[in-house]
Amino acid sequence: AHKFYSSPHLEYNKGGAHFTICNFKGLILSLSECIKQLLTSYNNLKTEKDQLLTSYNNLTTEREQLLTSYNNLKTEKDQLLTSYNNLTTEREQLLTSYNNKVKERDQLQTRFEDMTKNRDNLQRKLQGNYFWYQVSSEKKSWEESRRDCLKKGSDLMIINSREEQFKKSLWIGLTDSETDGRWKWVDGTRMTTSYWNSGEPNGGRTENCGQIKVYDSQNSWNDETCSNKHFWICEKRISP
Ligand SMILES: [Ca+2]
Ligand SMILES: [Ca+2]
Ligand SMILES: [Ca+2]
Fold it and tell me: Which residue range or ranges hold the C-type lectin domain (predicted)?
């Protein structure tokens, strides 16, 4: 009986005669057939090996490319990180700078507001103090006196303070011609503070124009008949 082995080929010895058979993938073949099959198998394996080698080389190349690509990406990443850090630093500097500028702006704004307030105060003071006065050298009625002042771009003096008192008998810009007893200044404002001499005003419907009369007294005013002739005083506000 034949004895089978799993090896590709085997020798079978029977009564001194020497046969060589082989078991190729479970088939019992003659030696020449076996060699043919082995050769084919060898060639196939060789081809496969070559393909695997090619595949291996390709993979090696690919791996190297990937490695290069990876290294490039890593470098790029590092550069981006550096760039990001620089930008972060720059952003912080800009933020600090911005905050400083905001503070500076607020301080300037405060200063500007203070200075504006100061300027307005000064302007008010200057406007309150800068007046041009002219005392006439002749005598005229209240109406004619006023016309003279208006011609010069001024008007009869309105007395706003105690300081506007003159040591001379003069027409001032005060009248109650419209309604007796309702004294008004020539700019249309109602008289609120007054410096009437004692007993004045006393003229009723006949004395409707104001004058400084008793000039040695703080309370110097008198109501006077408008058509009487007196010296007068013009006043003009000068814008600084
Ligand atoms: Ca005045
Ligand atoms: Ca009157
Ligand atoms: Ca009077």
Answer: 133-235
